[in-house]
Specification:
The structure is a single chain. This protein is mostly helical. The protein is built from 3 helices and 2 strands; from the N terminus they run ββααα. It has a two-stranded antiparallel sheet. Helix 1 packs antiparallel against helix 2, helix 1 runs parallel beside helix 3 and helix 2 runs antiparallel to helix 3. The longest helix is centred in the middle third of the chain and has 25 residues. The radius of gyration is 16 Å and the shape is elongated.
Amino acid sequence: MQRHLDFVGRQLVVNNKYVRRAIGARAEAEYLYLQARYSMRSGKINKSLPLYARAVFLAPDFADAHEGLGEAADQLNK
């Protein structure tokens, strides 16, 4: 397994497939979170719930996604 970090200009290049996968999962979680926030603001709570849940699954340390999931579940139960 190759572990190597290079700085190219101002961008950090990571040559490790596991790190790249983790970065990709976090980016996908943030994208899903934004979609879920938009759905919540549009009143589509049923649509936002699975988006938040997937974001939490991909990035368990993503506190905003956990909070959003709780908000969506709370709104759904009202």
